[in-house]
Design a protein that fits this description.
The protein is α/β, with parallel strands linked by helices. It contains eleven helices and seven strands.
Length: 205
């Protein structure tokens, strides 16, 4: 069937962050690590497991890890690190502007509340009809329910949907639900694979 709708992942596709450089910056400024998965015990990691599903806020995490109630400066410096150590896929963002003239575009992203806020302010989501964030859905990929929410909310036929992600596990679930899938590894591979799927554009990006 013809593709009518494209659902994109966001992080790892439209931008990347160097979290190790962000960690070094925050250690220097505030003397605590932001990398929960690398620098803290399993107990601490379990405590903040609900970060990406909105069960706990990143601000709460920062208060706990820093031991400070007033985290205004911490948030200011974190925002600076988040934007300074970021690679943005401008070619793909330009492609969105072309694709939205022909396809319905949605995003399904695993993201905590504060990153979602920063990404919104940077304008990463403006060309999507709607963005489904795990911190708002209270559930994240690859859980089947996250995909079904997008499909049902927009009355989409999965056979007419192309789902794009950089994580194979997420792609497997989308495929199980009947969607066409495409992995994102890099721009060259991705743009070539899009054309093979019959998705074309006339203007150089």
């Amino acid at each position: 069937m013809t593709i009518k709708t494209i659902i994109f992942d966001i992080g790892g596709v439209f931008f990347l962050h160097d979290f190790h450089k962000m960690k070094s910056y925050m250690l220097k400024k505030h003397n605590f690590s932001i990398l929960l998965s690398e620098d803290y015990s399993k107990k601490i990691q379990r405590k903040y497991k609900g970060l990406s599903t909105g069960k706990i806020s990143l601000k709460k995490v920062f208060r706990d890890l820093s031991g400070q109630k007033n985290i205004t400066k911490i948030l200011k410096n974190y925002k600076r690190a988040y934007t300074n150590y970021q690679w943005i896929n401008y070619r793909l963002l330009r492609l969105l502007k072309k694709l939205k003239k022909k396809y319905q575009l949605f995003a399904l992203t695993n993201v905590n509340d504060f990153h979602f806020e920063l990404n919104t302010k940077q304008g990463f989501y403006k060309d999507f009809q709607k963005v489904y964030a795990s911190s708002e859905l209270k559930i994240k990929k690859p859980h089947k329910k996250a995909f079904l929410i997008v499909l049902k909310d927009n009355n989409l036929n999965p056979k007419e949907v192309l789902f794009i992600d950089d994580d194979q596990e997420n792609l497997n679930m989308a495929k199980e639900l009947g969607m066409k899938t495409l992995i994102f590894k890099n721009n060259r591979q991705f743009f070539n694979d899009l054309k093979k799927r019959g998705i074309k554009w006339n203007i150089y990006l």
